[in-house]
Amino acid sequence: MSERVAVRKTYKLYIGGEVPRSESGRSYLVQSGENSTANVALASRKDARDAVVAARAAGSGWAGATAYNRGQILYRAAEMLEGRREQFVALGIPGDEVDAATDRWVWYAGWSDKLPQVRGGVNPVAGPYLNLSTPEPTGVVAVVAPAAPALLGLVSVIAPAIVSGNTVVVAASPTDPLAAVTLAEVLATADLPAGVVNILTGRPQETVPSLAGHRDVNALDLTGVADAELATSLEVKAAENLKRVLRPVPANHDWYADPGLARMTALLETKTVWHPKGG
Amino acid sequence: MFEYAPAPESRSVVRLQPAYGLFVNGEFVDPTDGDSFTSINPASEEVLAEVAAGGVGDVDRAVRAARTAYDRVWGPMPGRDRAKYLFRIARLIQERSRELAVLESLDNGKPIRESRDVDLPLVAAHFFYYAGWADKLDHAGFGPGPRPLGVAAQIIPWNFPLLMLAWKIAPALATGNTVVLKPAETTSLTALLFAEICQQADLPAGVVNIVTGAGETGRALVEHHDVDKVAFTGSTEVGKAIARAVAGTDTRLTLELGGKAANIVFDDAPVDQAVEGIVNGIFFNQGHVCCAGSRLLLQESVADQVLASLKRRMAQLRVGDPLDKNTDIGAINSAAQLARISELAAAGTAEGAQRWSPPGELPERGFWFAPTIFTGVAQAHRIAREEIFGPVLSVLTFRTPAEAVEKANNTPYGLSAGVWTEKGSRMLWLADRLRAGVVWANTFNKFDPTSPFGGYQESGYGREGGRHGLEAYLNV
Fold it and tell me: Which ipTM was obtained for this model?
C-alpha cells in the first residue's frame, strides 16, 4: 500500500478575522518543516492599509470590553497555543520556545484587570475634587516583530499591546513567517474579535513604511527593525502624527527574561478626570 | 458696568538688572558665541531688560556643565539630600512669591490675580511634591533602584513661564538628572530669577543651567549629542520637528503640545456654573493655555440661554493693566501672537461665523485682544480646527450625547475636554469616550502637582505631574 499523500496548508494573511491572500496576488517560498516548502503571502502596501482599517474598526469594541473579558479571551488563546504545541514544533520552533511563548501569553493575560490598578488611581489634589487617573489604550499599533525567536518574539510584542485594549497590525518575521500564520489560527479559535490582531507576512521594509506614515495609526513598535537607517526613517515618518514609538531592540536581546511592564505602558495613555465634591 | 478705582500691585518688590547673562555652572556668564535681545512688558511695550541669546557654543558649555554635575555631584548624591535642596527651593519660592508673581505679570502680561493666586502657589507646590519623591523612588512602582537618564534638555513656552519651569525642573532633579533649560524668548526673566534662587539655595553648580534665547538656541540644545532626554512644551509643529530630530538616537522624548479642547454643556447643567466654567476655560490667562476650552459645544435646546448668559458675563470681564488686582484679562504676550490671533479671528469672519465681543476700550499701548466669541461655527472652519491660543471661543451645537462625543473627538489633538451635566452616569460615559488626557467634569482648568497632565494623539506624549511624571526622567 502506498504512503498517504499529505494535505498541505496554504499560508495566508490574517486581516479583520479573515485569511485573505495578498491583494497583490504575490507569494514567496519558505521552508516548511524538514522536507517541504510553503508559499507564503507577500503582503503589499494595500494589504497593510486594509489591515489598519480592520484594526481601527475593532478598536472601540475591544477597548470597551471589560478587562475581565479581555483577560478571559487572552487566556483562552494561551490554551489554544498549548494545544498546538506539536504543530509549532513541526514547523521547527523548539519546544522550549513554544512553552515560553505560552507562559508569556498567560502572564500578559492576567494583566488586563490589574494594569489599571497598578498604573492609575486617585490623586490627592489640594482641593475639593475627586481626581482619578486611568490608563487607556493608545489605539492602533503597527508592530514589526523580531525576526527571531519567531514565536516567542511575536507573542512578546502582540500580547502587551492588546491586553490593554489596543489593536495591532503586525509585520511578521520575514524569514520565519509560518509561526505567525499558525499563531493567527490560534487567535482565530480563541474568540479574539476580528481585527484585534492582523498579521502581514512578507517583507517588512515594504509594508512598514506605509504603516509608519499612516495617519490612522497611533503607535509604532520598531522592535524587529534591524537596519538602523530604516529604523530612523520610520521614526521620522512616525513624527508626522506623533505616533508613540518603541525603538528597535538589540539583536542579542534576551526574550526569555522577565519583560516587566515597559511594553504595556509604552502603549497606554493616562486619562485624568476631575470632578468637584460638594453637598 | 460700574467703575472700579485702580488697584495696582506695587512693582517695587522687583529689582530688575539692566542686562542678564546665561546661567551656566552656577554663575551668570556672558554668551561666548551668542547675541542678546530685549525683553519687553507686553502691556506697555516698555523694555524690561536685555537678555542673552545663547549660541551653539554656549549651549555646549551648559550641557558640559550639566554632564559634569550629573557625573560628579547630583547623580551620586543620596535621594534624601537631593530632596532637601528641592525643599529649600520650594521654600524660597514661597518666600519670594510676591516678587516672582509681579515679575511674571510684568514679563508675560498675565493678570497679577492669576500669577499670584494660581501660578506661584502651583510652582511652590510642584517643588514640594517632587522633593518628597527624591528619596522614595524605590517605591514609585517602577521596580527597585530606578536610574536617572542623565542630562535633560528642557524647552518651555511663554504662557506659564515659571510654572512650566517647575513642571520640568522639579521631577528631573528629584529623579537625579541635571538640566539645561531654555525659557521662551519673550518670558526669560522669572527663569533668571529662579537661577538666583538656585544660588541662594546653594544648589551645586551645573545641576540647573538656564540658557536663554529663541528657536535657534532651542534647536542647538535639542540636537546636542550629549543630552539624554528632551522635554518640550510648545507648539505641535515644533514638537514634530523635535521628534524628527531625535529619531534614530537614544534620546528620550516627552512632548506637551497644542490642543483644541471641547467644552461640552448639556441641557441639565446649571447654567451659571457652566458659564463660569466656559469663561475660565477660554479667558483664563488670555486663552494662552494649551488645554483651553476653545470649542464650546452647547446642547441645542439650551444654546440660546447659555449664550445670552455668557455674553452678560463677558461684559463684566475687565481687560487691562496686568498689575491691577481687579484685572481679569491681561495683555497678549507678544506682537507676533497678537497677529496670529487677529489672523485666525479674521478667518472666522471670512468663513462665515458671527463674531461678538463686549463693548469696551482697549489700552492704546501694548498688545491687546478683546474677549471674543464666534457663533455659527462649522467643524470645517479654521477657528474650529486650529489652535488660536488667545481669548477666542468657537461655539458649536449638538443634539445627542453621541454627537457631542463625535464632535469633541473630531480633532488631531487630545489634550483636554470639559463636560457640564448634573447626570453622573452621563458624565462618566462621556469621560470614557473623550480622547483627551484630562477631562474636567463640572469644572475646568484645574491643576495640581499630584495630577498627571498630558495629551493623546498630536497633543504629545508623556505625562507631567504625579507619580506618572517621574517616568519621563527615569530609565524604566
Answer: 0.97
